[in-house]
Amino acid sequence: MTDAKAAYLAIATRKFAADGYHGASLAALANEAGVTKQALLHFFGSKERLYAEVLAGLAERLCEEVDAATVADPAAHLTAYFTGLAERAETDDARLVIRALLDSPEEAGFWPMKPFLDRLLRLAGRTQGGAAMEEEEALARLFAVIGAIQYFAISQRAISGMYGWETSEGAAAAFKARIAESVRELAAGGVE
Q1: What is the pLDDT of residues 75-85, one digit of tens each?
Q2: CA-CA distances (angstroms) from residue 104 to 42, 99, 113, 183?
Q3: How much of the chain, in percent, has pLDDT values that exceed 90?
Q4: C-alpha to C-alpha distance for 54 and 42, rounded to whole angstroms
Q5: Whose CA is closest to 190, among 141, 121, 136, 139?
Q6: Global model pTM greater than 0.90
Q7: What is the predicted pLDDT for the residue at 192?
Q8: DSSP codes joined into one string, 32-85
Q9: Residue 2: left (phi > 0), alpha (psi -120 to 50), or beta?
Q10: What sign for the dihedral angle of Cα 146, 127, 75, 168?
């Protein structure tokens, strides 16, 4: 990948994370990159293909993060991954996860988050609880954890504003402990 293309993808990642597919225009992306729309189109062909490359890169990074959390015990591995995700919840990639899910119409032929979710399902399936539950239940529980992490992340500024920074930090620590508990419950197959 050329340096220019990588730079354009980095800018597009930030813009799509902040504004979503529909809110980020090619003109705004080109303006931030200091190039014309035609320059972006030269590399990507269309806004849709640019977004697809951004989401494919996101899925690859997320899969790498799941793998990087490797711990011998699958339940500990899953807990380590989600604890790390909770700590990174205010990044562009974390926001882009939500955008990717919101921007994907049911008839889309491209599901960039599927490899990431498949990897999490396989990991959950290697736990005692995950192996005992239907795929639908495991998927629902994984989405509940991902959704809780995302919602808490976007709420941090409001919590801090309403209750102060110290309370917000305490709530964040308690939330991370709750996420770990939720993942342990999934891995155990119920409520501990």
Answers
A1: 999 988 898 88
A2: 25, 8, 10, 26
A3: 36
A4: 16
A5: 141
A6: no
A7: 46
A8: HHTS-HHHHHHHHSSHHHHHHHHHHHHHHHHHHHHHHT--SSHHHHHHHHHHHH
A9: beta
A10: positive
